[in-house]
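Our platform keeps sequence and structure together, in a single record for each protein. Such a record has a labelled line for the sequence and another for the backbone structure tokens. This encoding replaces a full spatial description with a residue-level series of whole-number codes. Below, we set out a record of this kind in full and without editing:
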Amino acid sequence: MTNSTDAELSARLTPEQYKVTQKAGTERAFSGDYWDTKTPGVYRCVVCELDLFASGDKYDSGTGWPSFTSAISDGRVSLHSDRKFLVKRTEVRCASCDSHLGHVFGDGPRDAGGQRYCLNSAALILDEDDTEQQVAS
């Protein structure tokens, strides 16, 4: 868990990053920095910088948000029931600092496990230099 206070996070994060990670917001489709990037690297939590997803597991889901078939390793994300908007969904949160990342759905590529981790770019930072983790995934 991050030791940052709410005031510190509000000062450190952009308004969009704060809204998404701390208030479980959702950025507009096709508006985030990473929805269509093909840059190799590791996607980390914008709040605590935990390695979460590898670029090798990223795919174009056509939804307008970065989508991945799996987390970089077990225990990096936690899943929670989300019943907002009267629809049952599964929320994805950072296992280290509990920041909201997005949702996971069962409509991903079948040959890769069938999961679609649909995330907000605002919840992520891309470490383009981290090639060791992306190969290990």
Summary: The beta strands are 42-45, 51-54, 58-59, 67-68, 77-82, 89-94, 100-105, 116-119, 124-127. The helical segments are 6-12, 15-23, 131-136.
